[in-house]
Amino acid sequence: MADYGFRSATGNDLSMLTGWLTQLQVSRWWPDAGEQVAKIRNRLSDSAIIQLIVTHAETPIAFVQHYPARRWPAPQFAHLAHDTVGLDMFSGPSGFGHGAAWLRKLGDQLLDNASTLALDPVAGNTRAVRACRKAGFDGDVIRKDAQGAPVLVMTRRR
User: Fold this and answer.
1) Which of 23, 39, 46, 64 is the most buried (most CB within 10 A)?
2) Could you give phi then psi for residue 40, rounded to 5 degrees?
3) How far, in Å, are 20, 97, 123 from residue 32 at the CA level?
4) What are phi and psi of 72, to 5 degrees?
5) b/e string for 36-74 if b means 16 or more Cβ within 10 A?
6) Which structural domain range is residue 35 located in?
7) What residues does 7 pair with on adjacent strands?
8) CB of 49 within 8 A of CB of 38?
9) What element of type H or E holds 85?
10) Is the predicted pLDDT of residue 1 greater than 70, yes or no?
11) For the residues 106-131, what does the mean pLDDT come to?
């Protein structure tokens, strides 16, 4: 497997993440970069949510966070096992095309301690859905998230 790594996100990454979130390929699915970065900043000290920078050959290429899926109101995950880990992610410009590989690697690690991993991409985000499928996630049920938006629930099980 390629040289992918994961390190904790820090306050020093916020400027880089803002730049990534303003790119059209990302902002289309993660609108309002300022609000998104504020959420990331506010969660840096929350031990229940793990925020990571994905690296490839030590170059930052993506952001991912994982957390107990039932910690926040997430009706789209209510039917899943209690130990389900939820994930959210987006790529930086150097990360496009790498998502399936690093997500598979991270998933392998997370499944050591959880029975199920869950993602909820917008169904129209075909690139993200394709990468998730290549990383071993499946599912075709569309459910509403806490804001009432339809999302595609995808899971990967141990």
Assistant:
1) 64
2) -60, -50
3) 12, 24, 19
4) -110, 160
5) bbeebeebeeeeebbbbbbbbeeebbbbbbbbbbeeeeb
6) 4-157
7) 53
8) no
9) strand 85-91
10) no
11) 95
Q: What share of the chain is helix, strand, coil (3-state, %, to 5)?
A: 30, 30, 40
Distance between CA atoms of residues 93 and 61, nearest Å: 7
Helices 99-110 and 126-134 pack at an angle, to 10 degrees, of 50
Average pLDDT over every residue of 35-48: 95
Structure tokens at 76: 């789209």
pTM for the full model?
0.94
Total of domains in the chain: 1
pLDDT in tens, 29-41: 999 999 999 999 9
Round the average pLDDT of the chain to a whole number and report it: 95
Q: Are 116 and 80 in contact (CB under 8 A)?
A: yes
Tokens for 34?
């300022």
Amino acid at 91: S
Are the C-beta atoms of residues 101 and 95 closer than 8 Å to each other? no
**How confident is the model over 51-66, as pLDDT tens digits?**
999 999 999 999 999 9
Tokens (6 digits) for 55 = 């690296």
Which amino acid is it at 122? V
